[in-house]
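Folded chain entry
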Amino acid sequence: MSVETQKETLGFQTEVKQLLHLMIHSLYSNKEIFLRELISNASDASDKLRFEALAKPELLEGGADLKIRISFDKEAKTLTLEDNGIGMGREDAIAHLGTIAKSGTADFIKQLSGDQKKDSHLIGQFGVGFYSAFIVADKVDVYSRRAGTPASAGVHWSSKGEGDFEVASIEKAERGTRIVLHLKSGEEEFADGWRLRNIIKKYSDHIALPIELPKELHGEEKDQPAEPEWETVNRASALWTRPRTEIKDEEYQEFYKHIGHDFENPLSWSHNKVEGKLEYSSLLYVPARAPFDLYQREAPKGLKLYVQRVFVMDQAESFLPLYLRFIKGVVDSNDLSLNVSREILQKDPIIDSMKSALTKRVLDMLEKLAKNEPEQYQGFWKNFGQVLKEGPAEDFANKEKIAALLRFASTKGTDGEQNVGLAEYIARLAEGQDKIYFLTGESYAQVKNSPHLEVFRKKGIEVLLLTDRIDEWLMSYLTEFDGKQFVDVARGDLDLGKLDTEEDKKAQEEVAKAKEGLVERLKTALGEQVAEVRVSHRLTDSPAILAIGEQDLGLQMRQILEASGQKVPDSKPIFEFNPGHPLIEKLDAEADEDRFVDLSHILFDQAALAAGDTLKDPAAYVQRLNKLLVELSA
């Protein structure tokens, strides 16, 4: 190596220091994974070179034969990994190896919990696998040069994994990157050819370019001091191009960990080859765990795109809708051009056909998981359910398929668990029931005890209990399933159809007629606070409730809009009272009009609290209640 110039010592970004401390002292329970991470990075560097060389063939510098070479020196206790991919310049090395160049770095550090299994899962997601080298090495040297730059533009980056790193300019004849790990005492096992072969076969067999180790010499060969002979130790063919029957589950799982930057096996996968009008292969995975940035809709997402086995781009978003952004995988097309861009992808009719087919394939995969492995699906739902709920609004064509995958809490389900599917709900409809009833609210405790459920409990009718912030918005798009209409039990004038007998309906009409006077008094007392007052058919135990107008926004949507600073349309609730309740009977008999007004307002405010709403004038409510308590104790 030539003389180093422009040498300087720089400090790591704060987050990198924290990360290195975790890496070195507590993170990986499985040390050998560092090699997989470094091989993955080398593979990505080769993919990037191949892609950039489509537009600038001169970047290949006459060497299009891309590979990764791993060598070791037992005496010097070093392990060297070299690739001839895109490489780095001085500024690249400082940016990529001295900082975690990703938004959400602080989130990452917050997510680290000290639980090795959970923490190691996050490492790859943040593109910080390089730092795993410090698990086994007490010093790491990186020599690199970016393709297309002169030999004098090489860089040497060096660090002992403490507070700082050194960077210097060097001459480097070959493009690409060489990483030298100076192994810690006790980590000599990683300077052993047999051990390295096993690790590569286990974790990196699927890498689609050759990973070479020095050929082991025997007998007389050992005496020949020559350049080492190299042999390829991985299969070096793209996994998705091979027949499914030849691929073991373990190979599919390791490939997922490579492309998904994950440390856990996927829940499920689907490998498919399409021939005919369109020709493409796809390999799609459902992760077992949600990434930290799942709810940031602008976060990077999408499939790895290859065209005729040539890598084109990471995170090609156009092949799946946004509500399936958690899906990882690869799509390899024979019909797209190699110089395709994100802008072209958005307008290409071929993409629309592929997107439609891939979306159905994912939904079929989830349906199969739900049917065959309900416990696994329940784990999936806890991680990704809220994202899947975006589907009915976004994907009208697959609304019914998505609805079948949704899970809800219910009055007949396990306490608070979202584990009731719509098909299951329909299978146990009460006799005469032709609607799907639901109630939205802020928390399970609030909806479970809601007065709106009283008539349903009395008649033994199941109600879905929806408490996610997205639920009311979801139900504005999900109007029916399997021919059954959804009905919000807190909205409008509840009509139970055939679930009410003729006797029930006749009795309701008679009571409503008998209480016309009380309805008018309450309208006068509550004035502008209510849109309407009426006798309730929903209540059996509570004195009063507030119902939402048929076209009005519910409480959840109002709160979401208010929180985002949007103007919320004015709406007034409907006040319904239970004519058989002792409090209502006393109210009806109250002759003092001022006292009647106070009691009416107390009932109205209590109904608002039971619905999870906040009071417009809490002080007035407290004054009225105190006044009433004083009168009762007198």
About this structure: Confidence is low (pLDDT under 50) at residues 101-105. The longest strand covers residues 137-145. Residues 349-372 form the longest helix (24 residues). DSSP finds 22 helices and 22 strands in the chain.
